[in-house]
Amino acid sequence: MSNLNSLSFYNNQDLILDNNVLELKKLEFLNLGFTNIDQIVDELSTLRHLKELDLSGNGFDEIPSSLFLLNKLEKLSLDNNKIAEIPTEISQLEFLKVLDVRFNNIRQVSKKIHDLNLSEFLLTGNPFLLMSELQNTNVNDMLNRIFSIYDEYDKSKSIDLSNLGIAYVPDLSQFSDLESLNLSDNNIKLESYTLEDKKDETIKYKVYCENDENFKRLTKFKNIDLSKNDISEIPKYLTAITTLEVLDLNSNNIEEIPKSFLNLINLKELKLSDNPVSRVQGFDINKLPIEIIDFLLFNQKKEEVPLNEAKILVLGDENSGKSSLVERLVYNRFNAEYNSTRAIDILGFELSKNIFIDKLKKFQWSKKDKMTLLDDEHYIYAFEECYDNLIKVNIWDFAGQEVTYQVHNLFMSEESLYLLVIDGQKENNIIENLDWLEAISANADAPPVIIVVTKHENNQAYRIEEKEYQERYKDGYLKVCYVSAKENIGFDELKFSIELQLGKLQSINEKIPIEYMKVKKHIEKILIESKENEDFESYILEANEFDKICREHKITDRKEKKNLRVILNDIGTIIGSANDEMHVINPAWIIKVLYEIIRSKDINDGGELNLNSFDDIMKNNSYSERHYKWIIDFLIKNKIALEQDESMVLIPSRLPVNSPEGFSKENYMKVDKEFGLNFRYRYKKRFKKSILFDFIIQMQKYIVESEVKYWANGVFLEYKGAKAVVISNKIYKTIDIHLPINNEESRELLVKIRDKIDEISKKDWDIDDDWDIVKEIAIVQDNRPVRYKSYKFLKFKKEEGVTTVELDIWGKPTEFELSDLLDRYEGDDVEENEIVKLKKDEKKNFEKYLRGFSKEYEIAINSSEDSEDFERCSDNAGNQARKTAETFCK
């Protein structure tokens, strides 16, 4: 043992040395690297025969003075410590050939080091060094270069170190007056590294920086050029230089930028061309730096988590059994004395994703959701593993009174499962039930719907006309379940269907940035605390409060915040659009408030509400002045109310049901024995009950100034002396426009009315004007309308050169002059008016669009006998016509 020549304890973290090691007088090679050794170091001076000593990675902040007594030492490894200085005493090691002090914090090197005849001086990874470790470089030349750089740049405002093979950004904190640094065309990587990396001696050109403070001292620094390097990661210390005005990072390998870029508040020019990050679609190098940073931070990939949330909307007529259904689903109980829901109940419960996986394991779906049993080798796993395996399900149980229907529309969304509840004791209620189905279609694009027929214990033989419902809802999933909440019948099948459909909602597996989830949890915590403390003031979150929460969770980009608002509104965490100044965080509270308003006894017979009575309406709902303003604005913005003046609003859903006393369409149309203009919209599929309310709100300036202006199904209008009445019929899905006089002003008013109806149908409902609506004109005989015919059909006949058309009137074939039927409407066609309005460069495309349709309609006309047959034939040609039109428009 005493003759031992070499000994290594490398990376032995539990090493405890005793004095026996010091007795090894012939020891020449000793490795104590990464052992956290701090004892007996001073005693190492007794090992006078040591030639190589490795003390790397032990946390020394200075070179132990005892080492300078090892006068036979040839190689000394002190890399990966915290040494700040190489002192003059180093010159005592006269036989030293290799000195390794890489990855320390060396800021000062004594010029006495020139007295040594070093063959290798390893300095990589120190803030002192301005050059990389280069192979075959003469050590003395390197030392001379180091000292000359310090002498040359000590007081300089500009340093040019381009094209020198530099591997990292040096510590520049001692250059207090430095303003500009050129490090272009080097080998700089700017990579971070770990302690384990430091132990790997094959890793070169790594950056070591103790903290950002050194760079924050550069208070005059304005310009840095790091172009044409090998930078892929930007360290925080670079973005700590807040005085920076120009940062050139062109021609590197940067894939993303850190959020700390937002610290560069004085940046005037940011160059990122020829980097992977600049290849993001929409990137514009000519934008301002803050715009570039915002764009990249918004678009670069973020850590994401599943949203894991679903919403079930329970709809149906009053007393259909909705609340009892929910009670049985959530709590598995039945309350025979359950009162009808006055506003809304929102109940939440949690499901495990394993439930969905178990349901999905042995089933696969066709497009029509017909399930096929699979063998064990073909299981389907539809969900990814995530940090949270629980699904939050919120059931929204709406009130069923008809006056509240317009409020329901505000909260319908595609990312919801709908339970349409039908009273099994009302067998002749198909029209009302189909209205609900069409209301869902009008507000969401084919979401899954489960029709739940309740009270099955009283009428077990009853079955709804499923084929009729499927025909009305053929674009989406539709399932029918028969249940009895009282007897707990049919709920196993219902729960199975619910779990299947919930599992396919996008919101279950939609991934959102983890910062979004943190904001969502933050808002939910505020709601819980406000309920516990009865702090109703906190039910409304102002925009600046929302922004503060976002900043707290590192969301600063405007687009990100807007996108987050949309997501939170869709799932019901907040109520309010992306541009609202305030957001409600308690949906049940605001829905209850809205119901209180539209049901108020203070609304007069004309549907008008004096806002001075608001305090009485809200007496059961704690609210403040800011609540009041937000609620009124919300009513008006969402078309639930129409502002009459500062103190009065109109509630369209409370308009009188009956038409004005003494009014009839026939009498209204007869003026001087001449019948006026009559135009009809007939909706083939979707018809929104609130269409007239929307029309009234948007056509306010044309509504007559008289005591009687409108009722639930009609409204009177006036323009330049011309008068009109618009009447909707929910049962027949029609809107009739009647103008008693046929003159230029009446035709102008008709165009305005049609334009607005088309706009509401297409924009607000996304109804295809050419395929979902039949536009008809009245056929007048003996000065009275005898039936309606397709306006488009008659126009095509006339364009073919046909002068007369034979139509069936009361079972009798009757010939009409096309000019007599159409002349009064010619020039009023919306499509023709739109052509006049189009720019010249758009006009040709639109004309091609019409020709594309006319070609397909020609087929329909040639194979049809009358307008009804024409509509059927045109529907059959519809898909091809649509493709033709789209091709022409392109």
Automatic annotation (TrEMBL):
GO molecular function terms attached to this record: ATP binding; GTP binding; protein serine/threonine kinase activity
Catalytic activity: L-threonyl-[protein] + ATP = O-phospho-L-threonyl-[protein] + ADP + H(+); L-seryl-[protein] + ATP = O-phospho-L-seryl-[protein] + ADP + H(+)
Signal peptide range: none
Residue intervals of the Roc domain: 303-505
Start and end residues of each stretch annotated as Disordered: 868-890
Entries under Gene3D superfamilies matching the protein: 1.10.10.2200, 3.30.310.200, P-loop containing nucleotide triphosphate hydrolases (3.40.50.300), Ribonuclease Inhibitor (3.80.10.10), Winged helix-like DNA-binding domain superfamily/Winged helix DNA-binding domain (1.10.10.10)
Keyword Hydrolase carried by entry: no
Enzyme nomenclature, EC number: 2.7.11.1
Record PROSITE patterns: LRR, RAB, ROC
GO CC term (a single one): cytoplasm
Name of one Pfam family that matches: COR-A
Keyword field contains Glycosyltransferase: no
Keyword line: ATP-binding, GTP-binding, Kinase, Leucine-rich repeat, Nucleotide-binding, Repeat, Serine/threonine-protein kinase, Transferase
InterPro entries: COR-A (IPR032171), COR-B (IPR057263), Leu-rich_rpt (IPR001611), Leu-rich_rpt_typical-subtyp (IPR003591), LRR_dom_sf (IPR032675), LRR_domain-containing (IPR050216), P-loop_NTPase (IPR027417), ROC (IPR020859)
Protein name in the entry: non-specific serine/threonine protein kinase
